[in-house]
Amino acid sequence: MRPSRWWLLLLSALTLASLCAVRCIEAAVGIEPPLTLQWHYYRNSCRDAETYVTHQVEFYWKQDKSLTPKLLRLLYSDCMVTGCDASILLDGPNSEKAAPQNSGLEGFGTVVIDKIKQVLEQRCPGVVSCADILNLACRDAAHLAGAPSYPVLTGRRDGMSSSKASVDLPSPSISWEAALAYFELRGLDVLDLATLLGAHSMGKTHCSYITDRLYNFNNTGKPDPNMDSSFLDQISKECPPNSKSQGDPQVFLDPASGSSYTFSNSFYTRLLNRQAVLGVDQQLALGDDTSQIAQEFEAGFEDFRKVFALSMNRMGNIGVLTGDQGEIRKSCRAVNTK
What is the DSSP letter of 221? Predict the structure, then answer.
């Protein structure tokens, strides 16, 4: 029988992660890193930049471990819209932050990026980009939560505009086919989709994003038939029909991780048991390729960890600005004044 494409992708990814030295990860099949990104780009201009980022992330992560999912969401919301140019960090009434899909994005994660930028501006003014800081900080926070560390090539520059009209992040209720089409438009594939959604082993979501699954799936007036009945009873208590009028409370995306915010493969166990919180997550169990990937990751945590590193690296190479493109912002919240 001819092996499916996802299996070849997985085999290639695992072989690469096993045989290459850590700095070879960026050579994974698919998105190639821009040639002007470099290993330790700041070694001469700001020698200890990456060390500063790591120390700052660890300091704030120890105060609040929710930093990991918050930075992961920031990076995803940045890279998947106009590329990894830190445009998500720019303030303004019509910036990407103001888009409905990015509701709740402002908070601890953006504050930590601000703090890191302030430290680096004091030590190396005008050198380290916000785009690189976000990529490095996300890698370090994920590693502290249990994900593997992975190389982040640096040399990105910051975008000079941010528009909420550009934000096309998909609804968490879309089908896996629609989600895959969105990923493929950005050069990612089915393995990246099934892997990066595994980041939902950490974090929370608002009840408003799942009330359709609980009470009116596809306008049927009934719950999503793909939800386990006991899980449906449990989460319905946390998200009653009028939850939005009650302040739109949050629920953990993976109760197994909960407030510990631990990176694990329990996400895949839950979706295979029809206990995923978000509709798009549960949809992974419905596709032939995505369900098989979920089964592989549920059975092998190390396989998931290795491929997660590769997929994060690939996402971090989308739409990168380099050379004389963009700028190095003095503040991540505003473009430089002329």
Answer: S
Those residues with Cβ within 8 angstroms of residue 98's Cβ, 6 or more apart along the chain or in another chain? 92, 164
Report yes or no: 200 and 267 within 8 Å, Cβ to Cβ.
yes
**Structure token digits, residue 43:** 């070694």
DSSP helix/strand/coil, 158: strand
Q: How many CA atoms lie within 13 A of 137 on its CB side?
A: 35
Catalytic member of 2, 47, 73, 274: 73
Distance CA 338, CA 109 (A): 28
Angle (nearest 5°) at CA 276 between 275 and 280 = 145
Residue 23 annotated in active site: no
In this predicted model, what pLDDT tens digit does every residue of 312-335 receive, in sequence order? 999 999 999 999 999 999 999 999
pLDDT of residue 271: 95
Q: Is 318 helix (H, G, I), strand (E, B) or coil?
A: coil
**The model scores a pTM over 0.85:** yes
